[in-house]
UniProtKB/TrEMBL annotation:
<protein>
    <submittedName>
        <fullName>Chaperone protein HtpG</fullName>
    </submittedName>
</protein>
<dbReference type="InterPro" id="IPR020568">
    <property type="entry name" value="Ribosomal_Su5_D2-typ_SF"/>
</dbReference>
<dbReference type="InterPro" id="IPR037196">
    <property type="entry name" value="HSP90_C"/>
</dbReference>
<keyword id="KW-0067">ATP-binding</keyword>
<dbReference type="InterPro" id="IPR020575">
    <property type="entry name" value="Hsp90_N"/>
</dbReference>
<dbReference type="Pfam" id="PF00183">
    <property type="entry name" value="HSP90"/>
</dbReference>
<dbReference type="InterPro" id="IPR036890">
    <property type="entry name" value="HATPase_C_sf"/>
</dbReference>
<comment type="similarity">
    <text>Belongs to the heat shock protein 90 family.</text>
</comment>
<keyword id="KW-0547">Nucleotide-binding</keyword>
<keyword id="KW-0143">Chaperone</keyword>
<dbReference type="InterPro" id="IPR001404">
    <property type="entry name" value="Hsp90_fam"/>
</dbReference>
<dbReference type="Pfam" id="PF13589">
    <property type="entry name" value="HATPase_c_3"/>
</dbReference>
Length: 628
């Protein structure tokens, strides 16, 4: 068996870098500014250790556009490079000076880069790249390196007064948008707004108005304030973001101000969680609970993922549990495994640990809010409930914690934990199978008549009106022993909680057949008819929907399936014991009037659930006028 070394053709490297290494062309700027940040961090570390002598207080990184020359320059005042280092790190692809530095100084430096490929992203937008650099070391001279996007390069001496590096991109014809100030400023704000050293992009004009301080003669108007315009450095970034600070040093206003910085157009958050952990991984961040209302999808992709203050992505579904992608805020961790282009996460055991930690911290925060101020917690529940229910449905470990502080709201506006509610309904709403029956409405206004009918029987009715409530009900039924839920329109009030009770039918067989036929003709093909002996005071006609079939249809629609697979089935229940049925139907001799009355009673039941519209509603009103 022969052995050998795999060879790489250097002329093929640049096309691969240009087309396949990075998911977005614009990432080149993030990579080059990150390299400048690393160079500055290295010099700060060496100065702190006494290995670099001099005044290195100016750590500004400059981004400069020269439209006439067609260049974009990234300038740092960092560690710089000697000619030997230029040859080592620029001429050898995937050899990282950052990794070398980290290996040497371990915990003394916070370095962003690791792969040694970021610099070459410059060739995605540039026909030619120049590097002018000077090492911090005494006696160093400037070095210029030039490459036109192929394996050949030039290197020689260069004039440079200060230590640090200029990376000069000669922008290619098809990338001229990167010579526009708005384009570059937008990318800097996206990728570099929280880097640890000032990122300066030219200057900006600040305007202030100075009030007139002199005396105004009687009868004269006070002069307008003096407009004063000042040209100042346009520093893009916040070098000391809130998540890097200790929670003990921060006020509520600090957190709210930072939220406004992240989301200038957003509503104020309900509350927040400050993440700060050093072991077994490093993780900092702030997660905000926004007001969700019913807009689940509009809230996603609001958590920004950073690595050492460098923006990575706002798609954090791999590190944050699905239900918490509804939160807003920032997560920063150097221990999150990124792909080579630092654009997305790679599978890793640390990711699972971080996910578990975030879930645990969120549960602890919610639990403490519930225990410390239940009234305030209940006031936030319309928004907060979406997070909690979503988490209970999607995360088993979260369910175990959340079941203690998840709330159920009834139609009276009162709130209960699951345990409290089970105790509340135990006496009245335990069925013949020893199951607790939670009765609920999906629309308290539309189903008002049905809600009142259930309450008249002494039942408590829950409001479960959000889209997340349907899967929540199923989860509760699976997790809680002998607890089931039925909607107020799933049965007649006497059958919402099934008991071993039978009522006498006051009609004989002939009368039952007559009434059944009348209503079957009135209903047509829209549903089935059942004649039942109910209480005398119960409505003459009621419309019910089988709980199981309705849930199947709803689940089908949520999954985007064809809703027609399960037809919209319902049952028309006629109360054989209600005197109106006998008076309007059996005591009327004219068959046409009987049929008209049967249709009227059926439409009255539809109206009670707001199911009657259009021409049918007009016909119902006409019938009502005749009967008055």
């Amino acid at each position: 068996m022969q052995k050998g070394n795999i060879s790489v053709q250097t002329e093929n490297i640049f096309p691969i870098i240009k087309k396949f290494l990075y998911s977005d062309q614009e990432i080149f700027l993030r990579e080059l500014v990150s390299n400048a940040t690393d160079a500055t961090s290295k010099l700060v570390t060496l100065a702190r250790k006494g290995e670099a002598k001099g005044d290195y207080s100016d750590r500004t990184i400059d981004i400069m556009i020269d439209k006439e020359a067609g260049t974009l320059t990234i300038r740092d005042r960092g560690i710089g490079m000697t000619e030997e280092e230029v040859k080592k790190y620029l001429n050898q692809v995937a050899l990282s000076s950052a990794q070398d530095f980290v290996d040497k100084y371990q915990d003394d430096a916070s370095i962003i880069g690791h792969f040694g490929l970021g610099f070459y992203s410059a060739f995605m937008v540039a026909d030619k790249v120049e590097v002018v650099t000077k090492s911090y070391q005494d006696g160093s001279t400037g070095v210029r390196w030039i490459c036109a996007g192929d394996p050949s390069y030039e290197i020689g001496e260069a004039e440079r007064d200060m230590q640090g590096t200029d990376v000069i991109l000669h922008i290619s014809e098809d990338s001229k948008q990167y010579l526009e100030e708005d384009e570059i400023e937008g990318l800097l704000l996206k990728y570099c707004r929280f880097l640890p050293y000032p990122i300066r992009f030219g200057t900006k004009t600040e305007t202030e108005y100075k009030e007139f301080e002199g005396e105004v003669a009687e009868g004269e108007e006070k002069p307008e304030p003096e407009k004063i315009e000042t040209e100042v450095d346009n520093v893009i970034n916040n070098t000391d973001p809130l998540w890097k600070k200790s929670p003990a040093d921060l006020t509520d206003e600090d957190y709210k101000a930072f939220y406004r910085e992240l989301y200038p157009m957003g509503e104020p958050p309900m509350f927040w969680i400050h993440l700060n952990i050093d072991y077994p991984f490093h993780l900092t961040g702030i997660l905000y609970f926004p007001k969700v209302s019913g807009k689940l999808e509009l809230q996603r992709n609001k958590i920004q993922l950073y690595s050492n203050q460098v923006y990575v992505t706002d798609n954090v579904s791999d590190i944050v549990p699905e239900f918490l992608t509804l939160l807003h805020g920032v997560i920063d961790s150097p221990d999150i495994p990124l792909n080579v282009s630092r654009s997305y996460l790679q599978a890793d055991t640390n990711v699972k640990k971080i996910t578990g930690y975030i879930t645990k911290k969120v549960a602890e925060k919610l639990s403490s809010l519930f225990k410390e101020d239940r009234q305030a917690y209940e006031e936030k529940w319309p928004d907060l409930g979406v997070f909690v229910k979503y988490g209970m449905v999607s995360e088993e470990k979260f369910y175990d914690r959340a079941s203690k502080f998840a709330l159920l709201e009834n139609t009276e506006g009162k709130f209960f934990t699951i345990e409290e509610y089970c105790e509340r309904i135990k006496e009245q709403q335990t069925d013949k199978y020893e199951r607790l029956v939670g009765i609920y409405t999906a629309d308290a206004t539309r189903q008002h008549t049905l809600v009142e009918a259930a309450r008249d029987r002494g039942y408590d009715v829950l409001k479960l009106e959000h889209a997340i409530d349907a899967p929540t009900i199923q989860t509760l039924e699976q997790k809680e022993d002998k607890l089931t839920f039925v909607r107020v329109d799933s049965a007649t009030p006497d059958q919402l909680v099934q008991k071993d009770e039978e009522k006498e039918n006051l009609l004989d067989e002939t009368q039952q057949e007559t009434i059944t036929k009348l209503f079957t003709d009135a209903v047509g093909t829209g549903g089935t008819v059942e004649l039942k002996p109910l209480d005398v005071q119960d409505a003459p006609v009621q419309i019910v929907r089988n709980e199981f079939m309705r849930r199947m249809k709803e689940m089908q629609m949520m999954q985007g399936m064809d809703a027609n697979m399960f037809p919209d089935s319902y049952q028309v229940v006629v109360n054989a014991n209600n005197p109106i049925v006998k008076e309007r139907l059996l005591d009327v001799e004219d068959e046409a009037t009987r049929a008209e009355n049967a249709t009227y009673l059926y439409q009255l039941a539809q109206l009670s659930q707001q199911l009657l519209t259009g021409a049918d509603l007009k016909a119902f009103i006409d019938r009502s006028m005749k009967m008055m």
